[in-house]
């Protein structure tokens, strides 16, 4: 029996060599759940020029099972994802699940338990009703009133009051993201005639959140192939390299929680920057894929993630810094505001960050992007998952 | 591979109903106990992972509330699998293998009592072709049992013997729900009688993992995880040989079960007939102490029963009653997905 120390282990570098998405739409009536996930997985395999036989393990994630009415759907999906005879893990961390799923998969490679892993996240919201799925009444617990918008709107109000942000900031974000989505062939909403006036005159849903400042309900899936250094060397296209990744959680409801800028989000970002050697995120990061389901969360997360000082996030947004041609493009893909298959949304952020540093984002490519952040959150701003990817392998 | 061990294990008493308790109230004492065993506090833990099911809780995001039981402030590094806690432990084990953390807290829980667990589990099935027919878990297990009898692998008296042995073993387990001599009862679904099927249980379980010297520091005789692997099979029962479990065999091979004999096996077999399948797949002889805790036939808190098997095997190593044990967890209809872990104590 060998003696060991609990000291540092030399981790295997993790590379993204395949990315696949479905065209996200309100209802994919032409495919089953299995057909949907297989489409994204096959595209990721094709991107990596690999076959099902090259995959050692599958890690799958989605948001609550109630959204499709299938309990632990990974059991039924094992066949469709080529997982038979392989290990298959199912992650569920609420809205952050797409990010967490990716990180769990990355650990399988980093620990050298497996060489090449398929990770996938999906949601087929058309199979049921997300509002109902989130609003099952439970005795003695606070109901999540009228879905997620009703929960988050008061926190947006708190942000506005705290920072003095003017009313129009949220509309600017929605107008930007919906325009970016026009450049992304996979995005759900393609509003070709979008104008700022249209956003601003859309109905008020949960004051101050307007209809056009709200994410859609989408069917869709996203898949990635993660592999080790040897796998990356065989990649037909430039890989994206993982430089850091972290998850953090805190309780949804307790007296000391700052719902505007949760500590778990700050800690999570700080851990990722430490791993990636990032000292000044505002200067060193070239593109951000941020989980913004309601437009006001862009300025809020800009502060939470350390891109702006407290109270200054809305000024970055207002000055155009986060536009596709700005100094720090946020959600070049159109973001969650344009595409929201809930369980997949976090993974789409991670995958879009990887697409940027691989130089494969097509029309919504951020020129010269070398380092990109993927961000996801879930629950009542309870769970956070983030990763930082680069065009070059990590040096340490 | 980095050495990682289970250094502490705690469980609730498993009961038929727990109407008076929320999930948080059920989980908290178990978390406190497992932390107390090591002297660690939540803030000392490097990574936390849990397993549970929204469908059992009857609400979306049910685990977001249970996290309150951990005391997740200041914020913690945490994750969750919508699976049995055995897979949460697998995720935590992999995290420890990366070297990023030295300790992990893993817990899972299930309240089967509020609904009909037989009906609830039908929602796991292929949603388009099978689930609309509502074939329940007992009916599916009965298909498997009949296939075994038809193949000459077992018979009804042998199955009754497994039930009697399990409940007899449970007599020494103060947390078990069904203990001692319990009549086999009438058929639930032929050929399975009541005694061949698990009780409906509510319960919770937690373990703490630690790496290398940290494990030695926290536990007198750590249960070292020598290997752990899990495999899934096709979902459709029509394409599987229900008398065999190739996924268990493959996971066991990868985990290193067959390298040297084991003295103890804790198998997650909710139905007597499934023990027959697992015993064959793992090549266990009569000299192996099988389910000394009583297994899932004595208490079956869904989503916790698999991690319970691992915890029970580890506890036997902690107590010096075992030197090398195999622990197993299952998920899905008729043993679709299986996890196998090999645990060892250092030579005495």
Concise overview:
By secondary structure, chain A is an alpha/beta fold. Helices cover 33% and strands 17% of the residues of chain A. Chain A has helices at 33-48, 74-77, 97-110, 130-134, 147-163, 169-181, 196-200, 229-233, 263-276, 281-284, 297-304, 313-318, 335-338, 342-358, and strands at residues 15-21, 57-61, 88-91, 116-124, 204-206, 209-210, 219-227, 240-249, 287-289, 371-378, 383-390.
Please explain how this structure is put together.
- The complex is a heterodimer of chains A (396) and B (348).
- By secondary structure, chain A is of the alpha/beta class.
- Chain A has 14 helices and eleven strands.
- A nine-stranded mixed beta sheet of chain A has the order 3-2-4-7-1-8-11-10-9.
- In chain A, a hairpin with a 2-residue loop joins strand 5 (204-206) and strand 6.
- Chain B has helices spanning 23-38, 54-57, 62-66, 85-97, 117-122, 137-150, 156-169, 212-218, 246-255, 272-281, 305-318; strands spanning 4-11, 47-51, 78-81, 103-111, 187-189, 192-193, 202-211, 223-232, 264-266, 289-290, 324-331, 337-344.
- With 348 residues, chain B is of the alpha/beta class.
- The longest helix of chain B has 16 residues, at 23-38.
- In chain B, helix 4 (85-97) packs across helix 11 (305-318).
- Chain B is globular, with a radius of gyration of 19 Å.
- Classes of the chains: A alpha/beta (396), B alpha/beta (348).
- At the A-B interface, helix 2, strand 3, helix 3, strand 8 and helix 9 of A face helix 3, strand 3, helix 4, helix 8 and strand 8 of B.
Number of strands of chain A: 11
Strand content of chain A: 15-25%
Helix count from the secondary structure assignment of chain A: 14
How would you sum up the global shape of chain B? globular
User: What percentage of amino acids of chain B are in beta strands?
Assistant: 15-25%
Mean pLDDT of chain B, as a whole number? 97
The residue fraction in helices of chain A comes out at 25-40%
Overall pLDDT score of chain A: 94
Q: Which regions of chain A have little confidence, pLDDT < 50, spanning 5+ residues?
A: 1-6
Helix proportion range of chain B: 25-40%
């Amino acid at each position: 029996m060998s003696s060991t120390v609990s000291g540092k282990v030399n981790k295997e570098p993790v590379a993204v060599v395949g990315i696949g998405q479905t065209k996200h739409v309100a209802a994919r009536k032409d495919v089953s759940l299995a057909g949907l996930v297989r489409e994204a997985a096959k595209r990721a395999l094709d991107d990596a020029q690999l076959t099902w036989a090259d995959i050692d393990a599958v890690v799958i994630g989605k948001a609550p099972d109630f959204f499709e009415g299938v309990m632990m759907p990974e059991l039924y999906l094992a066949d469709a994802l080529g997982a038979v005879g392989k290990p298959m893990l199912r992650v569920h961390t609420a809205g952050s699940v797409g990010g967490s799923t990716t990180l769990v998969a990355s650990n399988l490679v980093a620990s050298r338990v497996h060489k090449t892993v398929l990770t996938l996240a999906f949601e087929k919201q058309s199979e049921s009703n997300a509002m109902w799925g989130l609003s099952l009444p439970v005795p003695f617990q606070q109901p999540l009133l009228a879905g997620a918008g009703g929960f988050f709107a008061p926190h947006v109000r708190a942000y506005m009051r705290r920072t003095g942000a003017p009313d129009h900031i949220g509309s600017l974000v929605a107008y930007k993201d919906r325009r970016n989505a026009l450049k992304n062939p996979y995005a759900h909403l393609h509003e070709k005639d979008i104008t700022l006036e249209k956003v601003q005159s859309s109905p008020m849903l949960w004051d101050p959140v307007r209809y056009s400042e709200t994410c859609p309900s989408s069917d869709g899936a996203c898949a990635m192939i993660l592999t080790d250094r040897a796998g990356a060397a065989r990649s037909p296209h430039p890989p994206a390299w993982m430089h850091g990744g972290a998850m953090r959680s805190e309780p949804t409801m307790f007296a000391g929680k700052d719902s505007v800028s949760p500590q778990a989000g700050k800690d999570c970002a700080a851990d990722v920057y430490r791993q990636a050697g990032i000292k000044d995120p505002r200067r060193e990061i070239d593109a951000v894929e941020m989980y913004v389901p309601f437009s006001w969360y862009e300025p809020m997360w800009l502060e939470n993630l350390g891109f702006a000082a407290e109270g200054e996030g809305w000024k970055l947004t207002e000055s155009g810094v986060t536009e596709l041609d700005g100094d720090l493009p946020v959600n070049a893909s159109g973001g969650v505001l344009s595409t929201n298959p809930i369980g997949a949304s976090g993974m789409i952020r991670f995958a879009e960050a990887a697409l940027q540093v691989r130089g494969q984002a097509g029309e919504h490519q951020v020129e010269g992007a070398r380092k990109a952040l993927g961000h996801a959150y879930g629950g009542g701003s309870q769970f956070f998952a983030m990763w930082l990817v680069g065009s070059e392998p990590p040096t340490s | 591979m980095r050495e990682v061990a289970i250094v502490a294990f705690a469980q609730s008493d498993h009961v038929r109903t727990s109407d008076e308790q929320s999930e948080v109230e059920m989980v908290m004492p178990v978390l406190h106990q497992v932390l107390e065993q090591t002297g660690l506090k939540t803030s000392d833990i490097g990574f936390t992972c849990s397993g549970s099911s929204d469908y059992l809780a009857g609400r979306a995001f049910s685990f977001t509330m249970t996290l309150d039981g951990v005391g997740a402030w200041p914020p913690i590094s945490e994750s969750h699998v919508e699976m049995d806690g055995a897979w949460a432990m697998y995720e935590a084990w992999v995290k420890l293998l990366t070297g990023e953390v030295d300790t992990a807290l893993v817990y899972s829980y299930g309240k089967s009592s509020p609904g009909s667990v037989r009906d609830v589990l039908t929602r796991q099935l292929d949603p388009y072709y099978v689930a609309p027919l509502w074939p329940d878990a007992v009916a599916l297990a009965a298909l498997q049992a009949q296939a075994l009898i038809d193949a000459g692998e077992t018979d009804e008296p042998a199955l009754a013997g497994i039930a009697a042995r399990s409940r007899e073993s449970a007599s020494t387990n103060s947390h078990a729900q069904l203990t001692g001599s319990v009549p086999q009862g009438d058929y639930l679904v032929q050929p399975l009688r009541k005694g061949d099927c698990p009780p409906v249980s509510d319960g919770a379980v937690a373990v703490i993992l630690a790496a290398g010297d940290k494990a030695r520091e926290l536990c007198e005789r750590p249960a070292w995880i020598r290997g752990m692997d899990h495999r899934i099979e096709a979902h459709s029962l029509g394409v599987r040989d229900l008398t065999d479990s190739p996924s268990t065999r493959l996971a066991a091979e990868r985990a290193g079960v067959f390298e040297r004999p084991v003295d103890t096996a804790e198998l997650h077999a909710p139905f007597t007939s499934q023990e027959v399948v697992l015993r064959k797949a793992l090549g266990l002889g009569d000299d192996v102490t099988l389910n000394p805790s009583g297994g899932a036939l004595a208490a079956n808190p869904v989503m916790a029963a698999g991690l319970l098997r691992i915890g029970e095997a580890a506890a036997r190593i902690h107590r010096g009653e075992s030197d090398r044990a195999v622990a197993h967890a299952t998920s899905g209809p008729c043993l679709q997905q299986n996890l196998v872990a090999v645990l060892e104590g250092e030579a005495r």
